[in-house]
Design a protein that fits this description.
The protein is an alpha+beta fold and about 350 residues long. It folds into four domains: about 100 residues, Tetrapyrrole methylase, C-terminal domain (Methyltransferase, Cobalt-precorrin-4 Transmethylase, Domain 2, 2-Layer Sandwich), CATH 3.30.950.10; about 90 residues, Helix Hairpins (Orthogonal Bundle); about 60 residues, MazG-like (Helix Hairpins, Orthogonal Bundle), CATH 1.10.287; about 50 residues. It contains 15 helices and five strands. It starts with a helix and ends with a helix.
Amino acid sequence: MVADDLMTALSALGLSSISRLMLLDAAELSNGGHMPSFPPDAPALMLACETADMAKMKRVLAAVYPQDFSLKLVLRDGQLAEFPLSTLDKQNGMALFIPAMGAGSSFEAFQEIIAHLRAPEDGCPWDKEQTHLSLRDHLLEESYETLAAMDEEDSDKMREEFGDLLLQIVLNAQIASETAEFTMAEILQGIYEKIVRRHPHVFGDVSVDGVGDVLSNWEQLKKEERKKKGDGEKSMLDGLPAALPALIQAQEFQSRAARVGFDWPEIEGVLEKVKEEIEEVRAAANPEELTDELGDLFFALVNLARWKKIDAESALRAASQKFKKRFHYIEQHGHKTDRPLHEMTLQELDDLWNEAKKARG
């Protein structure tokens, strides 16, 4: 029966070649999955659609394909119905044909072009010279550009920056595969297994009561993993990169300690600690004491941000960008009036600052 349906579908679609055609049972898309199990740059033919839940299939396909993406349904009489993905849940037929989305739309295709860049014969001279260490600064730069796009909540920029960040990861993976260190498949399998292992409340039979239980269970699982690796007993605060920005590091230290109850019971205690640290800054008698007390004040302010569920690093970055915009306003005024800033009085500068606040927020 399946073979007959396949031949009927291929004939109706006029497919003389089935090169790269993915053949699947429609149940794969309608039985609780969340993502298509095939690359979007390859055509797919889903059989046994008459017994599948078309609404669920639509939801899974919509995770990758746009709502106006054109699909073809082979009817029992061999006729074809063409329609957009948005109406899939209203259709009924024996086989669904999903055309290839286009070149470059799959992860595998992206891996291929990165491997081509590194090819000894016809690759790119710059890419062929790169190593893990030479790419380090590029990875750091792309990470910060990605964070900036996220802070701005700019979807177009995020899409672009996520692509640039992915380039760095895939390029490093390609370098590793050439030197037999590890492969992309091993990277994917490793993180896949880790996610499953650390979410027994999702993929297993462990019950949790809220986010607090999830985090506590997460720490316990990590502890067990370290023990199996023979790493010995380590602090909960170990494992953070030394190069991590100080605000992020402080907030993560505090979050980890809070998971085991080492935290203020109420936010009033946090606010009082901030006031206490400000007074200690005032009382500092020398540069060494001042450095120490300012560090304590920063740490207390990060704790306040954590209590308010605010990312301290993003908050300070936003404040810096706001300062930059307002100061640029003052500079523009100086250019327009042909007056260098160093010739203005502090009152003039302050007045322009207030104008900038009103004009640009």
